[in-house]
Request: fold
Amino acid sequence: SLVDDPSGDDSLSLEEQDRERQRLFGILERLVKWENSNNPDVLAAARAEIDRCFPDGPPPILDPFGGGGAIPLEAQRLGLTALSGDLNPVAVLIQKAMIEIPPRFAGRPPVHADIDTDLTTWQRAQGLAADVEAYGQWMRDEAERRIGHLYPDATGPNGEKLTPIAWIWARTVESPDPTWNGHVPLVASWTLSNKKGKPKVWIEPVINRATQTITYEIRTGGEPSHERTVDRGNGTCIATGSAIPGDYIKAQSRSGLMGQQLIAVVGEGQSGRGYYTPSDRDSEAAHSGEPPWKPEGRNPEKLTGGTVFIYGLDEWWKLFTPRQLTALTTFSDLLSEVRERVIADAAAS
Reply:
């Protein structure tokens, strides 16, 4: 604790100590309320108590395994010098964005030339936040211009325009049953949504035995008509009920015979989230994309505990679809481009 309990002050009677203790508790009670996170009066009261206990300045706060940075961030809010780190590079990146970069630009105006605001003074990280929003919007708009055609909008069951936010895929393998000449899906669950008080939304596999093909439709209400077709690495042919051993699945994947099929799309519109059956356009777009670059090199055998290497996904590029690689490459290029924009705007501001 940075603030001592009043019991250590011999100049106070027991009643005075108790009153002082309750006063300090009152500061804590106001401080922990979410709505007071940025209340300057509440923060000033807490900082005043810390300064009272440390006339020569409080000690720095060190969190060697800071994770998401909650402790050093709260220390900064109380006016303390915070030092933090972590073994996980993702955690370090989060900490830099939360506790290292914002203080460097505190109180400064944005450098972007087209900030739409009535503010004349910029407090704390307001200017930095405005820049992040403006340059982020530019990246988003530019990405849509370059690769938006790979992510077509859709029309929901009620005619509402939906923006896709997720694509549900199924891995497929050739059925080992000679009576079925085609690929079958490996699906752990057919349920898409099972929210309390709402009808369950699930995927219905439609098996056409004449053409030996499987298509998928979205159902609302009731229960899925099929059980899962993969469990603990072993599968079941949904068309015939034949077992698909795990070793067979791995061999199919290592031989490049494992496929993938788009079985549902999640979209978002004005009325909320919706689920719809993929159209031919959705499937074509999902399999499109010509990435100008792909990450070379072999994966570590124990990547994700070794669960991808044994399926032949032994190189980095194999972990992504062409569309995913195109999107990742596009955003990587945009990061370099936006950096040049920021530098140019900062020099001109």
